[in-house]
Amino acid sequence: MAVTWSTQTLANESYVEYSLWNEELTLRENATISKFIDGSSAHRVLYMYRAILKNLTMNTVYIYHVGSLNGWSGIYSFRTIPNEKRKLFAVYGDLGVVNAQSLARLQKEAQLDYYDAILHVGDFAYDMDSDQSRVGDQFMNQIQEIAAYVPYMVCPGNHERIYNFSNYKSRFTMPSNGDGENLWYSYNFGLAHIISFSTEVYFWWEYGFAQISNQYRWLEQDLKWATASENRTKYPWIITMGHQPMYCSNANQDDCTFYDSRPRSGLPYIHTYGLEKMFYDYGVDLELWAHEHSYERNHNESKPDIAL
Fold this sequence. Notes:
The chain is of the alpha/beta class. It has a domain at 179-308: CATH 3.60.21.10. It has seven helices and 15 strands. It has helices at residues 103-111, 130-147, 162-171, 210-227, 229-234, 262-265, 276-281, and strands at 2-7, 15-20, 27-30, 32-37, 45-52, 61-68, 71-72, 76-79, 89-92, 117-121, 152-155, 185-189, 192-196, 237-241, 286-288. Strands 2, 3, 6, 7 and 8 form a five-stranded antiparallel sheet that branches. A four-stranded mixed sheet has the order 12-13-14-15, covered by helices on one side. A three-stranded antiparallel sheet has the order 1-5-4, with helices on one face. α1 (103-111) links the parallel β9 and β10 (117-121). α1 (103-111) packs parallel to α2. The protein is globular and about 60 Å long.
């Protein structure tokens, strides 16, 4: 379990104290510290702390707080992945700070243990970099009452792109088996192998073309692992999450309204690094998207007699 927090002034030694429910906070994990510099002209500084809690017992409730000699947070709790087959996710994207109408419900239900994990499919605060990243601070304070209690899993959206996704990369701690900066990664959860990736590599070329091929090659290797017979038996569901969808039927001119959408067909004109065929060939069961601010559920577009 990864715990991440930030301060405006540096605490040279900071850590998580934790224990089983209703016990003394006798366990401790030191945090690593990184310096975040906002990309605006003011170069506002924040300090990011990360601690990894290891060797936790399955289906067990822990309590914890974070801090240092300078001060401590309140006490929070989380439950590790249950052994039983119950796996309940809250899935959404495009939340925002100002008009997050579902925020109160999500906060309440996370604290009542309704969910095993949150999947936030890109676009967070509108925008985290705004006001020298203070909007990012505001957003993280809002979701603290969710993410402090349940794993909060993310992928980048187009609204995170400023300063090469620096707020997004710095504020979250995802599995490091992908690019190591939260842009693409995967993990196993219950009966599912879940793959988070960046559709944004197809749109924001100013950050380099190499990221497109790097992600594509990683996706193929990860899907090869997921579809190996022993792994597919253990994790029969393969689920992907990326922000900008391959398909949509909205009456606008967004990329997903075109037949050759970039995540689907790849780079314009040359049509390389498209994901539709790869996902179909490796038997992806469910693809989660956001971006369009509307709800759609599609049949498999490659083989329409199979429902997704």
